[in-house]
Design brief:
Blueprint: H1 5-13, H2 17-25, H3 33-56, H4 66-75
Helix pairs in contact: 2-3
C-alpha cells in the first residue's frame, strides 16, 4: 500500500463534489446551471468511487443489503438489537 494511503482514503470520503464544481467554474451551483450539472455528475462518479473503496475494505455502504450489513457488524464483534 502507498505511504499516503490513509490520506487518500480520507480525501475520497470527504470529497465535496459541489464545492469542487464551484472551484472549477468559479460560480455557485445555486445560481449557475452548468455548475449544478457538473457537481451532480461529479457526485455520481464520486459515489461509485466511494462505494468501491468501502466495499474493498469490507465496510458498510448506503446501498448494501441488510444481511451484508449485519455480517459486517457481527464480524466487528457487535450484536444487532432488533426493535419492533
Amino acid at each position: 500500500m502507498p505511504e499516503n494511503f490513509d490520506e487518500e482514503i480520507d480525501k475520497t470520503l470527504h470529497f465535496n463534489p459541489l464545492a469542487e464544481a464551484e472551484e472549477i467554474t468559479g460560480k455557485s451551483y445555486k445560481n449557475n446551471e452548468f455548475t449544478s450539472m457538473l457537481g451532480f455528475m461529479m457526485a455520481m462518479e464520486h459515489n461509485e468511487k466511494k462505494t468501491s473503496l468501502l466495499e474493498f475494505f469490507n465496510d458498510s455502504t448506503l446501498s448494501m443489503n441488510i444481511l451484508d450489513y449485519i455480517k459486517i457488524v457481527e464480524e466487528l464483534g457487535q450484536q444487532i438489537e432488533y426493535k419492533t
